[in-house]
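Re: the multi-chain job from yesterday

Posting the exact lines I submitted so nobody has to dig through the queue logs.
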Amino acid sequence: MKNWKRSSLLGLEDLSKAEIMTILETAESFISQKSNRISEGSLLKGYRIINLFMEPSTRTRVAFEIAAKSLGADVISITGEASSLTKGESLKDTALNVQALGADAIVIRHSSPGSPLLLSKIVDVPVINAGDGAHEHPSQGLLDIFTLRQKLGDVKGKKVTILGDILFSRVARSNLFGLLTLGAQVTLAGPSTLVPLEFEELGAKVTHNLQEALTDADAVMLLRIQHERQSATHFPSLSEYSKMFGLNKSVLDFMKKDASILHPGPINRGVEIESSIADSDKSLILDQVSNGIAVRMAILYLCSNVRKKI
Amino acid sequence: MEVEELNINLIGARILDPIQKLDCVQDLYIRRGKMFFEQPPDDDSKSYRSLNLNDHVIMPGILDLCTHTRVPGTSSTESIFNISQSAAKGGFTAILAMPDTLPQSDNPGTIRYIEDRIKQSSLINIWLTGCLTIKSEGNSIAPLGSLKDAGIIAVSDSPRSCIDSQIFINSVKYAKMFNLPVIEFPQDSYLSKNGNAHVSSFSLKMGLGGLPSIAEEISVQRAISVAKDLDYNIHLSSISSVGSVSLIRDAKKRGIKVTADVTAHHLILNENAIEGYDTNAKLFPPLRGEKDRDSLQNGLLDGTIDAICSAHQPHPSHEKNVEYDKAPAGAIGLETCMSASIQSLSTKTDDPYPVIVQSLSYGPHKILQLPQPAIKKGNLANLTIINNKENWTYHPNTELSEAVNSPLINYDFQSCPVLTIVNGQIIYSK
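And the result, structure tokens for all chains:
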């Protein structure tokens, strides 16, 4: 693949437009070949992929498992509670052991920003970031962009609003980096305590006014509000959040008629989004989930292929 | 320690001691450890060593206001001898040891233990601080009178700050009774809780943050108000933000008794040093933006900031070789402090040496109420000698210590401490 030379995917910040397009086009090819499962199923035959999930995750871990299995690889998932990290083993030692067990690639989810980079310096197999603290979640960003492109076509010049807890969100950062690289206009919106103005220096527009955030937006990405983490210190209550920043029927009045709504899940119905809107035809939420498999297949395939050539 | 009496001729160096009105190229003779500007008449110079020191600067011995010795501590690899050897290599003739030992330096027994270690193995003068509050936890005043009797010369809760303002005021008031210098590490621990980097677009991008400038500045303002109210000097340690510099500048203009220091790391690096999640550049206070660094340099040049310190803090590599947010903050700095300071100030002034003498020798001695180590006929030599034209690259000495946690590894410097003389004896020579 001429535009892909990385054996690890640590984030979207450093990816060029051509690299992002290579992943998206590869994912597209997996979707269009849906009927041809047999040929896909041999692409990573004999590979051993280890999911090292040090933080709770269901959909990302399962999506990576399905993606790896669809390519014919063997997958072993190690989760936080079951790993030796909870017994005081350092990430370095865990990583070396995982490598010694014969991993051909490691998919890592970890609460510490930068931990996939640290891991990639320790092991010499591909490392795929499946979410590191508040830093990046590149596979989620890519599947969001993939889904947006299915709906909007080229995202260049399109207005995308990301709404919610931006400060602590890795999904927001990966989407921001990827969308800006592809030429979209990104607005970050939410309570002033969760959307710092410093994001403007990274190329986004920042607003704390819901109407301003939604008018003209071609798509709105909602983020899960993690009240258990930010309660009291960053906003008063879930009901106040829902009143001020939730997507309910009344805000549909000032949204574009054909605007799309995305959410990385799991959604809090009645908090970020009213139930009927989540189920409406504006919602691309389930498309995101199924696209997530093709995008992760593309990531595993491209990174492993580079590794093969080394 | 038995060392031969020093007899040496230092030829051709710039001798710089502005308090003694000395700034000239002149030979300096050291006879039996004492300094002379002319060869003593009954001297048999043949048996003495001569050193040609063109392009060198001789200055009064420098003192580090902030060394975290970690002795006693959890790491078996750090020792008073290692620390003093590192300090001597960095040109320091004296250091002030911080009280964050284990057990904490909040009781006379610990102080006496450290003093014994110093007597046995230190090459340099090591002065001790005691905790301002018990265990530096900010809940009750430490026995400052007994600590002073045991030998401390200053008090501090570094690298923490007493969050309860009433206890802080009473502690300072109590320290004033013993005329003990108070060193405050300004940081509002509520505002910096769980933080790991300066708050900026740079750290936001990396998913880091939590250590905003305001956490330091609120604490600086509190110290200024307390110093004014009690009419007693509070020394602010390791200030790092543009806001702190202007608060201190204004306070000094109003005649309030505050002094301040900055670390050499904050003078030469900015937040970009944490790129790639480099835990060696994870400091507390954190490295901040370029504007902050610029204002710290200006603060030194205009006298707002009184001193430069190393904030030397060894951590064994297994502690630093972890995820960024899990790594302890702090870096070793004794060996690079002088060279980094000269390099940083050279970008602002053609002749950084007068500010260097002021901020590494005069300032620290004055803040601690210690006599200045003057370059004066008949005085015992306490000297720091710098080669102003020596290019070198920093690599931590792994034989001395397991700690290699410096953000300046592989950094190129253009000047270097080459000779350190304490109480008339050469303790380090390159």
